[in-house]
User: What shape does this take?
Amino acid sequence: MSENTVFVGAKPVMNYVLACITIFHSGAKEISVKARGRAISRAIDVVEVVRRRFLPDVKVKSVGIGTDQRASQEEGSALTNVSSIEIILQR
Amino acid sequence: MSENTVFVGAKPVMNYVLACITIFHSGAKEISVKARGRAISRAIDVVEVVRRRFLPDVKVKSVGIGTDQRASQEEGSALTNVSSIEIILQR
Assistant: This one.
């Protein structure tokens, strides 16, 4: 169900909040909010704003953390590890 | 069991990794790793380094997210919200 996944990156929090609300309003029961590296704290901001300000019936079903491999910016250098988070929201 | 809590802030990841390892080596079965705001992604880095590089028998028991109130830096201004995370590690 990749259409119900919101990848949180460097844009303002409200962009991702709106994405979540739009998906829930289209009838979805579950959304996966994912982020890596420094965007992780923004992903939690997104989830907290969705739940506390807009959709109080939304619950955090699960939170998973892990490590992804990322190709480094510099050419020829090895893969680097980056922490990741996946938060499943359920309505 | 506040002596088994590691608060992750702005220091290097390895400082907190060492704190976790020291607590586990002292015989603790559970550690709570907490962080707020932009330190959240560092807290996940800490947990991943502990598990993957040093103590592979350590498991993530639970991950909780929430919102804390924080007094703003500017005097006289209202409380601001800050996202928080608590990761319970179990050996």
